[in-house]
Amino acid sequence: MALSSRDYRQILDVIDIVYSTPDACAMFNAVCQRLENIIHICGGVGNLVDSKTGGFCLGGNMLYNQSEGTLCAYLAHFTPQDPFITSGWFKKSFNKVRQNTDIMPARALMETGFARDFLAPIAGIFYCLAATLTAQGDTVGTIGLLRQKRQGEFTVRHKDICDCILPHMAMHIRNQRLMRGLSLTNESCGMIMVDGDGRPLYINEAARLIMRNAPVSAIPDPGVGAHPVFFRGNGVYRVRTVPFARGKRGRFILLEGLPEERGLYRGLTRFGLSPREKEVCVLTMSGLPNREIAQRVFITEQTVKDHLHNVFKKMDIHRRSELWTKAQWHERNAV
Question: 266: Cβ–Cβ under 8 A, 6 or more apart, which residues?
Answer without folding.
Answer: 331, 334
